[in-house]
């Protein structure tokens, strides 16, 4: 079943795959010809140096990227401008941040991009953004992802929100922390089956990240070393499980010598990872909610205090990384992290804002590919 999904995605990006295959063949031909033409190449380099000329590789080594300051432009913020790379080097990346329900807006973003033949060759994400990006890379199309999101609306937390009892948002978050922390502490260190990991494995199979049709990466935080861990290879389901482990809600993922939790704690906007995977331009749909002040009287328990600390860390790990992007879509759905009954509204918002700003995205992609903007 999973193989069929991957094939569907392959068909969707067939032009991209054909282009990559042609590049590989060309690279192989160049490698074969270099062995027989090394004396001639050395001679040409020597002549070029005598004439005061630079070879292409030497010139690239001296070039520097020019970063410009952040400037607002409605819902779209071009954060930095860089020199246009060569067409065969230009790739753009889509970075999907976490945020629980708010991150479901990424489904609408992906749908709007595909409507306009904009298939991101590189996707990185964290937490819920990692799950959406990873499932998409494994062959789940936006309608399928939206269908999966509807299942979240039937969660126990959503049922509490549907009740007629007026429950303030903070209290719901408090109940969430209270209900899970005992189970979390009780199971820590016990060798039991990881149900969430098993579910993810059933969804994507045993496919490795490096075998996906889209270049994909996600992150997590290792509590043992205290460092950010990037997943760019290995089983996809294990990487998604690690990145999804929201503190006090979803238990940490266990790998040999590691205890892994939500990557958003250190980096909720993995732009740098997208660049490491080859992105020369990065688009970030901004779904984070700016941190608001909380009255001192609201800190009525240790659990509320811990939850607030997590919120503070997540806000900082988002806002400190956003300026590294090239283009930011300001979406910011006004919903809580676990308010899944509003999933449809959030997805529609992501779709609408992406459609409204599709020209700016096309311009970024066209600039990177060296095409004239009028062609888009």
Question: In short, what is this structure?
Answer:
This protein has 376 residues and is α/β, with parallel strands linked by helices.
Give the helices and strands as they follow along the chain: HHHEEHEHHHHHEEHEEHEHEHH
Strand content: 5-15%
Give the helix proportion (percent range). Answer: 40-55%
**What is the CA-based Rg, rounded?**
23 Å
Question: How far apart lie the N and C ends?
Answer: 36 Å
Strand pairing plus helix content: what structural class? alpha/beta
Unreliable runs: 1-17, 37-75, 79-88, 154-158, 164-172, 372-376
Q: How would you sum up the major sheet?
A: 9 strands, mixed
Number of strands: 9
Residue-averaged pLDDT, rounded? 75
The number of helical elements comes to 14
Describe the structure.
- The structure is a single chain.
- The chain is of the alpha/beta class and 376 residues long.
- The protein is 48% helix and 11% strand.
- Strands 1, 2, 3, 4, 5, 6, 7, 8 and 9 form a nine-stranded mixed beta sheet that branches.
- A hairpin with a 2-residue loop joins β6 (253-255) and β7 (258-262).
- The longest helix is centred in the first third of the chain and has 37 residues, at 14-50.
- The protein is globular and about 60 Å long.
- The relative contact order is 0.17.
- The model is unreliable at 1-17, 37-75, 79-88, 154-158, 164-172 and 372-376 (pLDDT under 50).
């Amino acid at each position: 079943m999973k193989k069929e999904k991957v094939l569907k995605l392959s068909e969707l990006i067939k032009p991209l795959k054909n282009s990559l295959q042609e590049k590989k063949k060309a690279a192989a031909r160049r490698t074969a010809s270099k062995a027989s033409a090394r004396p001639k190449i050395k001679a040409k380099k020597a002549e070029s140096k005598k004439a005061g000329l630079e070879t292409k590789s030497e010139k690239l080594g001296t070039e520097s990227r020019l970063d410009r300051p952040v400037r607002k432009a409605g819902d779209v913020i071009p954060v930095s401008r860089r020199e246009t790379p060569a067409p065969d080097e230009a790739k753009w990346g889509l970075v999907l941040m976490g945020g629980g329900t708010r991150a479901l807006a990424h489904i609408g973003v992906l749908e709007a991009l595909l409507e306009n033949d904009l298939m991101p060759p590189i996707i990185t994400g964290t937490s819920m953004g990692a799950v959406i990006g990873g499932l998409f890379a494994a062959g789940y199309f936006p309608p399928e992802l939206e269908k999966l999101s509807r299942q979240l609306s039937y969660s126990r937390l959503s049922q509490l929100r549907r009740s007629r009892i007026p429950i303030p948002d903070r209290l719901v978050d408090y109940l969430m922390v209270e209900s899970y922390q005992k189970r979390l502490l009780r199971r820590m260190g016990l060798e039991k089956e990881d149900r969430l990991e098993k579910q993810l494995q059933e969804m994507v199979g045993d496919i490795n990240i490096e075998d996906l049709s889209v270049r994909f990466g996600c992150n997590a935080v290792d509590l043992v070393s205290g460092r950010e861990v990037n997943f760019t290879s290995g089983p996809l389901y294990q990487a998604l499980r690690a990145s999804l482990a929201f503190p006090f809600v979803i238990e940490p993922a266990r790998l040999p010598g590691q205890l892994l939790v939500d990557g958003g704690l250190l980096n909720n906007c993995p732009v740098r990872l997208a660049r490491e995977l080859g992105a020369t331009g990065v688009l970030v749909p901004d779904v984070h909610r700016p941190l608001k002040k909380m009255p001192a009287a609201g800190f009525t328990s240790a659990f509320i205090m811990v939850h607030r600390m997590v919120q503070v860390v997540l806000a900082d790990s988002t806002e400190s990384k956003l300026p590294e992007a090239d283009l930011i879509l300001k979406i910011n759905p006004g919903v809580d992290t676990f308010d899944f009954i509003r999933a449809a509204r959030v997805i529609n918002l992501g779709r609408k804002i992406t459609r409204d700003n599709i020209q700016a995205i096309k311009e970024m992609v066209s600039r990177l590919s060296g095409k004239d903007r009028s062609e888009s």
